Amino acid sequence: MYKIKTLNSISHVGLEALDKTRYVVSDEIENPDAILVRSAKMHDYEVNPELLCVARAGAGTNNIPVEKYAEMGIVVFNTPGANAEAVKELAICALLLASRNIVGGIEWVRSIADKGDEVAALVEKGKAQFVGPEIKGKTLGVIGLGAVGAKVAHAAVALGMTVYGYDPYLSVDAAWRMSSEVRHAKDIDTILKNSDYISIHVPYLESTHHMICASNIYKMKRGVRIINLARAEIVCDDDIIKALDEGHVACYVTDFPNGKTAGHPKVIPIPHLGASTPESEDNCAYMAAKEIKEYIENGNIINSVNMPAAYLPRTGDKRICVIHKNVPDMIAKITAAVSGAGLNIENMINAGTKGRAFAYTMIDVPAIPAGLEDKIRAVEGVVRVRTIR
């Protein structure tokens, strides 16, 4: 039986994807083979030597020490796209909230609720203070055209907006799926200079830290409205607040409010609701469970954030899985250990990504003689070896 530990409440839809005759799932398991997690902080979490992988039921992995786990041979998965529909819907909602001052209007109506029969007349008299522009005919700049950004771009086109999209890492497959009505921005300045609204959909990385800061904000149109449903740290709080105070930015919608932004009158602080739908939680849990299952049972890596993707159909009775440093001559040394044991290699795959420290090799063999794992493990640069029988 494989042991799966949950660090948060996980949707039953995901848990049901794990065969109960092969998996035991609980939040009380010791020495698990895999961990299912949502928001629990794992940076100080003490992992056991048997742990093979961690699957985050969601896209962001800031709560997981991704690189540390790579060095330990622990694969970290996330679930890109599983919550894309939910975040897209919130982004469209944010466009409208940023335009029409709906939140301010609602708060004002609540403030006069005690006026009784006078409320209706007061509403007609006071509603002009909440007038805001329509989004049809306006220009939206989408930064990041992954699973969420592409959906937002397409939805905005359908709503009559002119849409520019910028993503220097856009994959060929994603480009094929992109509507021809989304205008390709070759650089971020095209987005900044042309957009009435800007919606951010990039992961939080060292390269995206404070991507939206003073140097970029003041390239934008005066009165721009900015939507950040990605991560708080992508936008510099101090710079956005200064721009709001000056009127250069008309409104800032964030799904990650904090002490600096939550109380500002021109900030719409949403309490991290991007993926907070039952459908999204089900989708994320199911995808995370399937990633664990595929890795544990077949060694295949799908949607990992710290290891290269690798998929090899099963052609042999036994499989050897090796996580190793991404350096020259590793394949020759590993296959030499296999052939030295008198085995024929029936199929294999090596996956490595340029600039990434670790690579991954799977080898199908007819048998696994005693001592083979130790021989491969002894190869300098090998981080982890396991066999699937």
Structural summary, described in words:
This protein has 389 residues and is of the alpha/beta class. It is built from 13 helices and 16 strands. It has a 7-stranded parallel sheet, sandwiched between helices. A 5-stranded parallel sheet has the order 2-1-3-4-5. Strands 14-15-13-16 form a 4-stranded antiparallel sheet. Strand 6 (139-143), helix 6 (147-158) and strand 7 (162-166) form a beta-alpha-beta unit. Helices cover 31% and strands 20% of the residues. It folds into 3 domains: 1-82 and 278-306, NAD(P)-binding Rossmann-like Domain (Rossmann fold); 84-269, 3-Layer(aba) Sandwich (Rossmann fold), CATH 3.40.50; 308-389, ACT domain (Alpha-Beta Plaits, 2-Layer Sandwich), CATH 3.30.70. The protein is elongated.
Mean pLDDT figure:
95
CATH class of the largest domain: Alpha Beta
Name the poorly predicted regions: none
Major sheet attributes:
7 strands, parallel
Number of helices: 13
In CATH terms, the superfamily of the largest domain is NAD(P)-binding Rossmann-like Domain
Query: Can you list the strand order of the major beta sheet?
Result: 8-7-6-9-10-11-12
* Range of strand content: 15-25%
Summed up, the domain count is 3
Order of helices and strands: EHEEEHEHHHEHEHEHEHEHEEHEHEEHE
* N- and C-termini, Cα separation: 14 Å
Helix/strand-derived category reads alpha/beta
CA radius of gyration:
25 Å
Shape: elongated
* CATH architecture verdict of the largest domain: 3-Layer(aba) Sandwich
How many DSSP E strands? Answer: 16
Summarize the amount of helix as a percent range. 25-40%
Q: How is the CATH topology of the largest domain named?
A: Rossmann fold
